[in-house]
Amino acid sequence: MKYAYINGKILDGTKDMQVKEGFVILTDNDKIEDIVKAGTDLNGYEKVDLKGRYIMPGLINMHVHLAGNGKPQKKQRDNEKLVKILMGNALMRSIAYGMVAGFAKTELMSGVTTIRTVGGLGSFDTKLRDEINAGTKMGPRILAANEGISVPGGHMAGSVAVAADSIDTALKHLEQSEKEKVDLIKLMITGGVMDAKEKGVPGELKMSPEMVKAVCDKAHENGYLVSAHVESPQGVRVALENGVDSIEHGAKIDDDTIKLFKERKAFLCTTISPALPYALFDRSITNATEVEQFNGNVVFEGIIACAKAALENDIPVVLGNDVGCPWITQYDFWRELYYFHKYTGVSNAFALHTATARAAEMVGIGDITGTLEKDKCADMIVTEENPLDDLRALRHVKMVVARGTITENPKVKINKRVETELDKFL
C-alpha cells in the first residue's frame, strides 16, 4: 500500500529535533518514499489523517529478555528450575514459544518497533525474528542473541544463559549461536543485584578475563558484536580490556575506564528501570531483603553515574529497560526514557533521539530505521501529546506503523499494581 500521512507534527529522531509542521510523509509498502510539503499532489496514495497528532520513529529497546513478564515476585524464584520445566518437552516448549511471541507483540503494541534481545530461551528469539520477517508473526524487528554465555553460579546461568565451565565450552556455545544465526553475542561477566549475598558486592566478577577475551576474539573474527552484563567498576574494566563492544547496565567509572571505552569504541546501554524498585521502593512492596535493597541502591546509583560520565565524555549511550526483571514489563519502555531524562538531566529530545536514531546507529541499522527520512523503513509511532514537552506522552501510543503495517489504537494488558507503584516515581 501507498500511504500519505497528512496533518501530522513530525519529530524526525535527530539529535536536535524540533516539531515540523506542513509536511506529508509518503510511504510505499515498508519504506518511507519521501517527505513532501503539504499541498503536494497525493493521487495514488491512501490518506492517513493524523489530525494534528505527533508522529516520530518507533522506539528501539536495546535490552530485552522476551521470556519475562515483569510480574512482581513474593520471593526470588529459581529461574533455572523454571526454564527446565518450560523447555522439558515439546508441549511445554510450544507453550513457552507462544508466550515469547506474545510478549514480542506487546513490545510492538507499546510503540517499540525494534528490540535487541540479550538472553532468551533456547533459539526462540532467532526463530521468532525469522517468522516476523516472513510475515507469519506480528512483532518488532528483532536483533537476537538467543542464550547468553555465563559460568557455573553466574548471572542467569541455566536459564537464559548457558553455564560455560571452561573456555572450550564457551567457544562451543559461540559456535552453536552462529549456527542459529544470531545477530550478536551476550556475555554475563558479573553477578547482578539479586545474585549478591552480602552488602556492597553486587556485580561481583564471575567470568574470567581469559574467557571474555577468548569469546570476544572469536566473535569479532566471525563478524559479531559482543555485549556484556556488568554491574561493577571491576566488571566494566575487565569487559572493555578484553574486547566487549557494549556495556549493559554499567557502574561508576574512572578516567582509565573512560579511556578504555574510547579506545574500544564501545557504547553503553543504560538500564535504570530494573534497579529502581529495589533501590527506591519500600521493602514491604518489593519483598526484598535488606541486603538486596542495599545492593539495589548501589547498582541504581552506579548505572546513573556511568550514564552521566559517558554523556560528559562523548561515549555513545543507548537505552534498554531489562524487561523481564520484576516490576519491568514488556510495555513500559517509555519509562526508561523518562528516567534517563529525570536522573541524568538530558533533554526530552535527546532521550527520544537516544531511543531511536542513536540506538539504530550503534547496532548497525542506522541506514534502515531510527529516523524519519526518505528511504528509511516506515517504523513510526503516533502520540496525542508532544513527548518533547513530556515524555509521558509515549505512554499512550495512538498508532504503530511497523515496516509499513498500520495498527490504530494499539492495546496492551496493564498490570495495575506495577503501574500504581512505578507511577509514584514519575
Automatic annotation (TrEMBL):
<dbReference type="Pfam" id="PF01979">
    <property type="entry name" value="Amidohydro_1"/>
</dbReference>
<dbReference type="InterPro" id="IPR051781">
    <property type="entry name" value="Metallo-dep_Hydrolase"/>
</dbReference>
<feature type="domain" description="Amidohydrolase-related">
    <location>
        <begin position="54"/>
        <end position="406"/>
    </location>
</feature>
<dbReference type="InterPro" id="IPR006680">
    <property type="entry name" value="Amidohydro-rel"/>
</dbReference>
<dbReference type="InterPro" id="IPR011059">
    <property type="entry name" value="Metal-dep_hydrolase_composite"/>
</dbReference>
<protein>
    <submittedName>
        <fullName>Amidohydrolase family protein</fullName>
    </submittedName>
</protein>
<dbReference type="InterPro" id="IPR057744">
    <property type="entry name" value="OTAase-like"/>
</dbReference>
<dbReference type="InterPro" id="IPR032466">
    <property type="entry name" value="Metal_Hydrolase"/>
</dbReference>
